[in-house]
Design a protein that fits this description.
Blueprint: H1 7-14, E1 18-21, E2 55-58, E3 66-77, E4 85-96, E5 102-103, E6 112-116, E7 120-127, E8 135-138, E9 159-165, E10 171-177, H2 183-188, E11 193-198, E12 209-220, E13 226-227, H3 232-237, E14 243-246, E15 253-256, E16 260-267, E17 274-278, E18 284-289, E19 292-300, E20 303-305, E21 310-316, E22 325-332, E23 362-370, E24 404-411, E25 414-417, E26 432-434, E27 438-445, E28 451-455, E29 461-467, H4 473-479, E30 491-494, E31 498-505, E32 511-517, H5 520-524, E33 528-534
Parallel strand pairs: 3-7, 6-11, 12-16, 15-23, 24-27, 26-33
Antiparallel strand pairs: 1-2, 3-4, 5-6, 7-9, 8-10, 10-11, 12-13, 12-14, 16-21, 17-20, 17-22, 18-19, 18-21, 22-23, 24-25, 27-31, 28-30, 28-32, 29-31, 32-33
Length: 536
């Protein structure tokens, strides 16, 4: 049933009637429309050009129900200039409701979905692949049967019907497949897209220019052919590619106006944890993490984003000269602790190139070319976030004074949670939680590599970090300036040897939900479990 919302309420939820949005980046030939243009994803790319300056995404003046058709199918895309790559892509169209709900990406990425807080959303998902699939709405709090979990997968030619109300605050989310043992393959081949929830936000952000940036990597042959798993190490460590791909394109270049922007960053990579920085040496001003506004803008010299994490970054391009090129740099932060490998039973050459030192090598993830304009007006980061930011979860309200231990380990050539692998909807007593309570959980990482741990439908507070084994403490210290544990998260990085305590609210829907490592190869190998929310 839809939620009745008055015109006055809807205007508050939507904020402004239009959001200025740069819809993508380009490494294509002159006339190649770039992300958001609505062209099919099979347009090959050539020499570098620049994406256009912002265009307006017009939002409806009231929150109305929307009905969508969404599908996954084989396609082709130009990822590297002069080549065409076979991919899988999401497509979508609006059947009923606001046409602005769907913004095509212009690349292999699925269209960006613009939803409204309080909106009823119905989606008919059609699987046009030759294998099982399903769609998970990452960061949305929805009922069990709307969450897109492995037990709900549908086969080739079948459909799945979604029907839910958006109860979440405004913020940056995304959607991707979630079939067991095939999530990594399907996301890598192209099945992912941004999802933005709109609603009432601070006046300083209303009508602000926005630029979404989906950060991924690929292993591509000279002819553009995608390569995926090439060794057991690719599965054990998590797959990474040599080519950085942003918004579906290598060598992503976008022209921006001389004004402040809101960068909506998503680490959509399978396993690469990235350390982001600017080539000009300026700090990054973060205003939101994992779809939740921070109480105040936070400056960091660089920003660590694990797979599945999001961050909204405020940046003022009026500080730079017309024609200047400002690069967003990305460094892989993968480590394996040789000291923690004893008796792990890794096999397959695992650990042959292991290291306990962080080798930071920057690559260019995106290039911003500064457009014309005066840029005279003094701009300052927003200082009105606090009234719109969600409250932290109070660990003092937890029903358990001693946290539940969630042990992460690597042995027998796979990755485990509390010595268990994925078993569908079978849960232990510890994995059974009571609705409308807060619990303390503590991830303890006995594995020689890092694990970004994600809970479905739950935004939690990071309470504290400590060491069970401090072998990598000095390496961690080099990353600390880029770690943001404040505010609410739905994915948290747990470094080898660390204990990370979180406070989790279990309000809302009852049923079975997932928690897992968001290195997709680890998840596919079974590093995923269910928790069950039961009535009190």
């Amino acid at each position: 049933m839809s939620m009745p919302i008055s015109r006055r309420q809807s205007l508050k939820l939507l904020g402004a009637g239009a959001v200025m949005t740069v819809t993508g980046c380009r490494s294509g030939s002159e006339g190649d429309p770039g992300v958001g243009s609505g062209v099919p994803a099979d347009v090959p790319v050539g020499d570098e050009t620049r994406a256009p300056a912002p265009g307006a995404v017009t939002l409806a003046d009231q929150v109305a129900d929307v009905r969508l058709s969404l599908w996954a199918e084989p396609s082709t895309a130009g990822i590297v200039a002069g080549t065409t790559t076979d991919v899988w892509s999401f497509g979508a169209e609006v059947l009923e409701g606001d046409p602005a709900t769907v913004r095509p990406s212009g690349s292999y990425l699925g269209p960006t979905l613009h939803l409204r807080q309080g909106q009823r959303v119905r989606v008919s998902f059609e699987n046009r692949l030759d294998e099982d699939s399903i769609v998970h709405w990452h960061g949305l709090h929805v009922p069990q049967d709307q969450d897109g979990q492995p037990p709900e997968v549908v086969g080739p030619g079948r459909t799945y019907e979604y029907d839910f109300v958006v109860v979440d605050r405004p913020g940056t989310r995304w959607y991707h497949p979630h079939p067991h043992a095939r999530t990594g393959q399907q996301v890598y081949r192209g099945l992912a897209g941004l999802l933005v929830v709109h609603g009432e936000e601070p006046p300083s952000l209303t009508g602000m220019a926005e630029l979404p940036l989906v950060l991924q990597d690929r292993r591509l042959g000279p002819d553009g052919t995608l390569s995926y798993i090439g060794s057991h190490h690719d599965m054990m460590a998590g797959f990474t590619g040599e080519t950085l791909v942003t918004n579906g394109r290598a060598d992503c270049t976008v022209e921006v106006e001389r004004r402040p922007y809101r960068l909506r960053l998503l680490n959509g990579a399978n396993s690469r944890t990235s350390l982001l920085s600017l080539s000009v040496g300026e700090p990054l001003t973060v205003i939101a993490t994992d779809g939740n506004l921070l109480p105040k803008a936070t400056e960091v010299p660089n920003l660590l984003l694990t797979p599945a994490q999001r961050a909204d970054v405020w940046i003022d391009f009026s500080a730079y000269e017309p024609g200047q090129r400002v690069e967003l740099l990305s460094a892989d932060t993968f480590v394996e602790s040789m000291a923690m490998m004893g008796g792990m039973g890794m096999g397959g050459g695992m650990g042959s190139d292991a290291t306990t030192e962080l080798d930071v090598r920057n690559q260019v993830a995106a290039t911003f070319v500064i457009g014309d304009g005066t840029g005279d007006e003094e701009r300052r980061p927003p200082d009105d976030l606090a009234p719109f930011a969600p409250d932290a979860v109070d660990p003092g309200q937890a029903v358990n004074t001693e946290p539940k231990t969630v042990a992460l380990s690597t042995r027998q050539a796979t990755h485990w949670i509390n010595d268990l692998l994925w078993e569908g909807r079978e849960v232990t007593e510890q994995e059974t939680v009571t609705a409308d309570t807060i619990e303390l959980w503590e991830f303890v990482n006995y594995s020689p590599m890092a694990h970004p741990m994600h809970l479905h439908g739950r935004s939690f507070s990071v309470v504290e970090r400590s060491w069970d084994d401090d072998t990598l403490a000095s390496t961690w210290d080099t990353l600390v300036p880029g770690i943001i544990d404040e505010g609410l998260r739905d994915t948290v990085l747990v470094f080898p040897g660390q204990r990370v305590r979180i406070a989790v609210p279990f309000g809302g829907y009852e049923g079975y939900f997932l928690y897992h490592c968001h290195v997709l190869e680890h998840e596919d190998m079974g590093m995923m479990r269910s928790f069950r929310v039961v009535a009190g």
